[in-house]
Design a protein that fits this description.
The protein is an alpha+beta fold and 120 residues long. It is built from four helices and five strands, in the order H-H-E-H-E-E-E-E-H. A three-stranded mixed sheet has the order 1-4-3. The radius of gyration is 15 Å and the shape is globular.
């Protein structure tokens, strides 16, 4: 697959995220997709399949404050599917803006993580 085709997959992913088009997102993820956040954020848990990735992202915010973080997502794309991606962000800013206002300060405070966090 060409570099341009890989970029198109990543663009479609972010367009689907913006549109909350979960069917499109699901169609872009490989069955055994791997997703990682930095270990310094409370909801860090490597997710190792499409079900976990789709079921454990995008939670409501606890405050009305604006959240304007900067992200970098390196993707691994195989056969026009996202096989792996890693979210790089300012983790301290995310903790202070999103997690602390919700009373989440440690991984055990996160209720949406898979039961077996050793999946990655």
């Amino acid at each position: 697959m060409s570099g341009e085709a890989n970029k198109a997959v990543a663009r479609r992913y972010f367009q689907a995220i913006e549109a909350a088009d979960y069917a499109a997102i699901e169609g872009l993820l490989a069955d055994e997709v791997r997703f990682r956040l930095p270990p310094s954020v409370p909801d860090f848990a490597p997710l190792a399949n499409r079900h976990d990735v789709l079921g454990n992202r995008g939670r409501a915010k606890a405050s009305a404050a604006d959240y304007e973080n900067h992200y970098h997502f390196p993707f691994v794309i195989r056969a026009r599917k996202i096989a792996a991606f890693h979210e790089h962000l300012d983790a301290l800013y995310a903790v202070r803006a999103l997690f602390e206002p919700a009373g989440i300060v440690a991984p055990e405070d996160v209720t949406w993580l898979p039961e077996a966090s050793g999946s990655g």
